[in-house]
Amino acid sequence: MALVVAIQQCEPINIDVEFSCKAGDVLAIVGPSGSGKTTLLRCIAGLHKPQNGFISFAGKLWFDAEKKFYVVPQQRQVGFVFQDFALFPHLTVLDNIQLAMPVSSKVGAHQLLARVHLTGLENRKPETLSGGQKQRVALARALAIEPQILLLDEPFSSVDQVTRRKLRLEMLQLTRQLAVPIILVTHDLDEACLLANKMVVLHKGVALQSGEPQVLLKKPANATVARLVDVKNLFNGTVIKHGGMSFLQWEAETLTLPGNPFDNGASVSWCIRSADILLHSRIRPSGGEKENPLTVTIEELMLVGGIFNLIVSLSGSHQVLLHMDLPPHVVERNHLKIGESINISIPEQAIHLMPTVVTDSVGN
Amino acid sequence: MEWSAFFLSLCLSLISVTILLVLGLLIARSLAWKRFVGKGVIEALITLPLVLPPTVLGYFFLRFLGRESMLGDWFESWFHEPLVFSFTGLVLASVIYSLPFAVQPMLRSFESIPQSIREAAWCCGLSHWQTFWRIELPLAMKGVLTGCVLSFAHTMGEFGVVLMVGGNIPGETRTISIALFDKVQTFDEGAADSMALFMLLFSLVLLILINLVGDKHLQGLK
């Protein structure tokens, strides 16, 4: 049972997207604000008709612009968790869920509430609920329709961090239980990596790249995608091929590269994940063959979410900054401090080359 | 106290409000959430009776409902009585000049319902009619009740339009406000006092009852 989407429009929001999502898939759609993520969900739900293209599910056509064919939302059986939850304020929690059930059943509604860990709140009105509770009711209501597809529009954006962490884990368990395509819109790349097995990067309505989240983060298709997925170490360089070997000319440094399809002299963008840059231990210094050893200066040292993020500058060029992620014990053992010089390696296998794309600002 | 005039006013107001409830809901629901060329013009036309002097409005009613008008002529040929200076003509005039009092509060109430709530209802499988009946109307009820109360009160108290369109025919078009004016003109202060005081008390009791019902409804929503 696969959802197939191929839609295009220019106004009011530019969209040019093509993807499929089968039962059991969790597809994350990421992109900056205004990139068309919510509009895309609304098209799938039948709440917005794009100008061109088609949408089908399990072989049944839901929308075809050319044939002027359109199935209303009521007939699509799409469970939609809205960003603002959109709970019916005049109804109790139980009534909100029962209203969505094809055959209204108090027992069924109670079971759904138990599934989202909200037993005991049946008679409460939405205005008396916390953000996390509202999110769970919205999810229970979306499940109540026995959905063929589940759409989640930034489901955790309105809750605090602690609640978000709990809800994500619950959502992860839920996604494993449901045998329907799930499409999740999110700004949060960690969330996308945790919950999704597929990801689409959207920019100004255009799908720039799709694939597994970890692959996308490690190997973005171009610099625009790299910026959109918040790759911190993104630079320009020139590929030099000489004597059967490949090198990357970057600032004043020459880095070794594995085999690549770029021509000699090609201008490229390149990136490396913060976690892939290696620190040379002061106790056991490394030679650094095929590891591109560099000497850098620590400009910033920040503890974020239990990991140290170092910002280091190249020797001779304090403008060029690299981001490294290190576990706290490594920082402590090596007594790292701001202003110190350290030796690092940029493993050639971790360097990802991309064609240089002339892009406009992505608003980041 | 001229009870016949009071009951005529009451009857006129109740019939007008019943018509305005249906008409107001239709208009408000049609205009809410929609943007189209000409929406401003339609809203302005609906609001026009609010800003026109009652005598001007009454004059236009006379012109377009009178015996020499197309509508007046048609009505008289079918029902064998004139549209103006009749209770039916008063009802028609009351509905038109109280229209903004009914539509505006209802329209604002419907517009205040977030679009996402309506869309959530559709995604839950509710048809447009079910969405209106089970979601939109309960949420807009305060505006609906306000519209009904305002148009009722406005119709009960209207004078200028009623005098122009209905005249002063006892048992037919002599409303309580016309009767009161008549008593003042004939220096019957005692009768005028009792009518005015009665209307004051009636309006006060009505408002208190409506507020109580409104509060109870809002408590129910909470």
Describe the structure using short key phrases.
heterodimer, A: 364 residues, alpha+beta, Rossmann fold, OB fold (Dihydrolipoamide Acetyltransferase, E2P), B: 222 residues, mainly alpha, MetI-like fold, 10 helices
Note down, in words, how this protein is organized.
The complex is a heterodimer of chains A (364) and B (222). With 364 residues, chain A is α+β, with helices and mostly antiparallel strands. Chain A has a 6-stranded mixed β-sheet with strand order 7-8-9-3-10-11, with helices on both faces. Helices cover 23% and strands 35% of the residues of chain A. Chain A folds into 2 domains: 2-77 and 147-228, Rossmann fold (3-Layer(aba) Sandwich), CATH 3.40.50.300; 234-355, OB fold (Dihydrolipoamide Acetyltransferase, E2P). In chain B, helix 2 (39-51) packs across helix 5 (87-111) and helix 3 (54-65) runs parallel beside helix 8. Chain B has helices at residues 3-31, 39-51, 54-65, 70-79, 87-111, 115-123, 128-157, 160-166, 176-185, 189-221. Helix content of chain B is 80%, strand content 0%. Chain B is globular. With 222 residues, chain B is mostly helical. The chains are: A alpha+beta (364), B mainly alpha (222). At the A-B interface, strand 7 and helix 4 of A face helix 6 and helix 7 of B.
